[in-house]
Specification:
mainly alpha, single chain, 10 helices
């Protein structure tokens, strides 16, 4: 068999091996149960690089039991602070899911609300992403060591940059969603259309160089995608913690978007 030549062939084969090692594809090149979950999430988020990364991170965190609303980092400030414990729990879960997306922001310094709590949570997301990138690079290295790829080439950096999971996003999208949902409770009726429009309009001022409305819609779409993935994983018999809670949070969010 001739060694792979083009950068596209090399990267595609590395990704395929990675997906097989992580149990998304079986030996017959068919989607596994987790592969179907990933596919269902991508059907909503889309297949651009950042969307694919968010979908893969969501499934990996799901498998590790880290995509939840559990009380973590109690010593850190920046967790939801308004209304009752149920509302705080719901706000936390939506915000953690939003941490997987990217805030639409101009190429200027971030100036907006902060959350040490979500920064701490994002450190776990970053650790998961780094471990997946390491595994992906090991798949690539193995292909070269086995002689499956032409080694006489000049596009080493291009290959490294083409492989996914290279860039790391911030948790800014999660932070602004947390503040948006928290701010709704300042008003008497947090679910009214007038309240939602007012807080959305005010929210643009929190992060000056961002497109808050577009970022908010991105976060809602990401939630819809991940929620669909959670339901499918549960239907496929995977051990998903607190599935009923996800249903409750989805119904709660419908009234606040």
């Amino acid at each position: 068999m001739q060694p792979l030549q083009s950068r596209g062939e090399v990267c595609a084969n590395a990704v395929w091996r990675f997906l097989q090692l992580r149990g998304y594809i079986d030996r017959q090149h068919q989607l596994t149960a987790w592969g179907k979950v990933l596919d269902s999430i991508l059907s909503i988020t889309g297949s651009q690089t950042e969307q694919e990364k968010a979908a893969l991170l969501a499934v990996e965190l799901m498998r590790f039991g880290l995509l939840n609303a559990d009380t973590m980092f109690s010593a850190y400030s920046g967790a939801p602070s308004r209304s009752n414990d149920i509302d705080k729990r719901n706000c936390m879960l939506v915000s953690r899911v939003a941490c997987l997306g990217r805030l639409i922001h101009q190429p200027r310094g971030y100036s907006g609300p902060l959350s040490r709590h979500l920064l701490a949570y994002h450190s776990m997301v970053s650790a998961v992403q780094a471990s997946m990138r390491d595994m992906l690079e090991m798949c690539l290295v193995t292909m070269f060591l086995e002689g499956g790829v032409n080694r006489e080439r000049e596009d080493w950096m291009e290959i490294a940059l083409t492989l996914p999971l290279f860039d790391e996003d911030s948790c800014a999208l999660g932070v602004i969603m947390l503040h948006y949902l928290d701010e709704l409770f300042v008003r008497e009726d947090p679910t009214s259309e007038a309240t939602r429009e007012e807080i959305t309009s005010r929210s643009q001022g929190w992060v000056v160089y961002s497109d808050f409305k577009a970022s908010q819609q991105l976060a809602f779409r990401l939630w819809d995608a991940v929620y669909q993935g959670v339901k499918l994983a549960n239907e496929n018999g995977e051990d998903i913690k607190d599935v009923e809670m996800w249903d409750e949070v989805d119904q709660w969010l419908v009234q606040r978007r």
